[in-house]
Automatic annotation (TrEMBL):
<keyword id="KW-0999">Mitochondrion inner membrane</keyword>
<dbReference type="Pfam" id="PF15879">
    <property type="entry name" value="MWFE"/>
</dbReference>
<protein>
    <recommendedName>
        <fullName>NADH dehydrogenase [ubiquinone] 1 alpha subcomplex subunit 1</fullName>
    </recommendedName>
</protein>
<comment type="function">
    <text>Accessory subunit of the mitochondrial membrane respiratory chain NADH dehydrogenase (Complex I), that is believed not to be involved in catalysis. Complex I functions in the transfer of electrons from NADH to the respiratory chain. The immediate electron acceptor for the enzyme is believed to be ubiquinone.</text>
</comment>
<keyword id="KW-1133">Transmembrane helix</keyword>
<keyword id="KW-0679">Respiratory chain</keyword>
<feature type="transmembrane region" description="Helical">
    <location>
        <begin position="7"/>
        <end position="28"/>
    </location>
</feature>
<keyword id="KW-0249">Electron transport</keyword>
<dbReference type="InterPro" id="IPR017384">
    <property type="entry name" value="NADH_Ub_cplx-1_asu_su-1"/>
</dbReference>
<comment type="similarity">
    <text>Belongs to the complex I NDUFA1 subunit family.</text>
</comment>
<keyword id="KW-0812">Transmembrane</keyword>
<dbReference type="GO" id="GO:0005743">
    <property type="term" value="C:mitochondrial inner membrane"/>
</dbReference>
<keyword id="KW-0813">Transport</keyword>
<keyword id="KW-0472">Membrane</keyword>
<keyword id="KW-0496">Mitochondrion</keyword>
């Protein structure tokens, strides 16, 4: 007759693997966010500002306090143009 705790070992392994993968995904998301907490309730204005910050600094969550825009910023226009109808 089997020992009752032997049936719990696979459950502990599965629970441990779910915990490890959840912690790893959380850490990766935290690193991709530039070490900042995730944003919630992002509206159109926030998306526009995040796009501007990305064009200024190269990172989605990056911000700068520099008075002058970096070289090449005047060419990275945020306006999306339609294709010409010909």
């Amino acid at each position: 007759m089997g020992v009752p705790f032997e049936a719990l070992i696979p459950y502990a392994i599965c629970l441990g693997m779910f915990g490890v993968s959840g912690a790893a995904l959380s850490k990766i998301r935290h690193m991709q966010n530039g070490g900042k907490r995730p944003r919630h309730s992002v509206d159109q204005w926030d998306r526009q500002m995040m796009d501007r910050d990305r064009r200024l600094t190269g990172f989605l969550r990056g911000q700068t306090d520099s008075v002058k825009a970096p070289a090449g910023f005047e060419l990275s226009n945020a306006w999306r143009l339609e294709k010409a109808i010909v």
